Amino acid sequence: MEGATIYILTFLAPLVIIYIVLVAWSRRRSDQRSLPGPSLVEGVKVFLKGSYTSKLHLYLPDLARRYGELVRVNVVLRDIVFVNDALVFRHLVRDKTFRELTNDRPSTFMRTFCFYNGQDMVLADLSQQQRQLRKIFHLLLKFYGEGIGKFEELMTRTLGELTRDLKNKEHSELSTSLKTYIRNIVGYLLTGGDTEIARTTLGKIDVFNDLVNNSLLFENESILQFFPFVRFVPGTRFKRMANALLAARDDLHETCFYAMKKTYAVGERRGIVDDMIAMQEEARGKGGEFELSDEMIKAVIQDIIVAAYLTTASTLSSLFLQIISKPEIQTKMYQEIHSVIGDGQPSFNHRQQMPYTEAVILETLRYSSIVSFLVPHLVREDIHYDDCVISKGTMLVMNGWYSHHRADKWGDPDVFRPERFLDSSGQLHDPDHPVRLNMIPFGSGYRSCPGETFAKSRAFLVVTTLLKNFEFLPPENGTVLPPSDPCLWPSTAVRCPDNYFAKVVLRDTN
Ligand code: HEM
């Protein structure tokens, strides 16, 4: 099989190279005032090196230093413009001159094959349908996030289970426990929580999510997008990946959508899936009203799983890894918890009084930059920026990793130092302080992350609840912590340290 693959690729290679040269040549002639960037050969070389190692974010800073805030890289069939500065990105996606033209998404393998041709929210172009889905999503998230009784009780119970589980262990595989906790919340948010359907769905979420996380890696996506045929080439990882992904998706919907729909009862609100089915039923037949199709509901379910689960779990896993490696930070957090919350139960209302804990969460988002390139945007029509043209069809990619690790903006970007977000009296800098404006972990504008508040408040609740009860120390069971430097973590679309154990010590106050 590998022989056949090599044969096909060898046969196709000359054709592809001729095609690349022709496309690049035609662009050079038609687009004289384009942004600065490397030559075609250098650009492709950087891209291939980054794709091969799956660490493209580590190869781009050099281009950023040489070419500035916007770097145009010509990669085969398309220009990619990497944006290296958070302020410039905000301007490009929010300013009214540009915002209707810079907020589409590129057509990707994932969107076409796995997300029903962009019937969702995350991967769809900016359109009436996308805006409508986003509005619905905001409403639902507000409803559940702010807590209806049943759901809030479920959340408290789930966090209680995690705490009890840790109490029974001297050593815990902490990262896995955190991941399971977030997975359960997302599953329950969708399907309720006390039913067989909900329980069966949880395992399927894991399978689907892991496959998406690998396939969505910018480098894998790009290969599949520029060379879609590789998905059909026998023996390649791309074919295996695509087949497994579609099978996992359909299996997920057997329970998460079809079983929910079959057992749906008017007036019952088991979770977000029921809410969407209810909206679908209500709008049916009433011409003119926005009607959710089955595919839209399934695609939004996938959105929620992909966007909410690994991002939040990885943020928590990264945060605990940092504070286990740096006990002085953990001690300061505990002191703040002790003085503000005391014997009480942590709640969202404590956030404003706990700037140090908030600063640790922000520093985790900066330092780990778990979604290096955010979610790519697409330019709908030519736009003129700074005397240059960014052509229609260009992929606009915010290089979040670089922006969060620029020495000229952060001074010591490779040091985990929450104090950078605090003023001299220990209060959190305002959101419009220059330090905060350099942060862009959740994107900006029309396509910014609608789950930002939900993610931050969940992280706050988990961190404060666990630190109030336990001290977390490096393991003494023969395992070691993974490196705390995110450059050394495995390459996945949402970057996360390897699983790790921690020694768990119950605090005296219990
Ligand atoms: C630490 C956790 C999270 C991080 C770092 C994160 C990051 C992001 C980023 C970078 C984007 C793309 C922004 C852009 O295109 O400019 C995004 C979009 C999105 N996120 Fe999040 N996210 C997190 C948690 C969540 C959660 C908890 C939810 C849902 C409950 C969620 C739902 C979404 C959705 C639906 C979109 C697509 C919005 C659109 O395209 O219009 N995210 N997120």
Can you summarize this structure?
It comes from Lymnaea stagnalis (Great pond snail). This protein is an alpha+beta fold and 510 residues long.
- First and last CA, distance: 61 Å
Ligands, deduplicated: protoporphyrin IX containing FE
- Roughly how many Å is the radius of gyration? 23 Å
Number of helices: 19
Describe the structure.
- The chain is of the alpha+beta class.
- Helix content is 55%, strand content 7%.
- It has 19 helices and nine strands.
- The strands form three sheets. A four-stranded mixed β-sheet has the order 1-2-7-4. The protein has a three-stranded antiparallel β-sheet with strand order 3-9-8.
- Strand 5 and strand 6 form a beta hairpin.
- Helix 8 packs antiparallel against helix 13 and helix 13 packs across helix 15.
- It is globular, with a radius of gyration of 23 Å.
- The model has no long low-confidence stretch (mean pLDDT 87).
- The chain binds protoporphyrin IX containing FE.
- The site of protoporphyrin IX containing FE has 26 residues, from helix 6, helix 13 and helix 19.
- This is Cytochrome P450.
- GO terms for molecular function: heme binding; iron ion binding; monooxygenase activity; oxidoreductase activity, acting on paired donors, with incorporation or reduction of molecular oxygen.
- Belongs to the cytochrome P450 family.
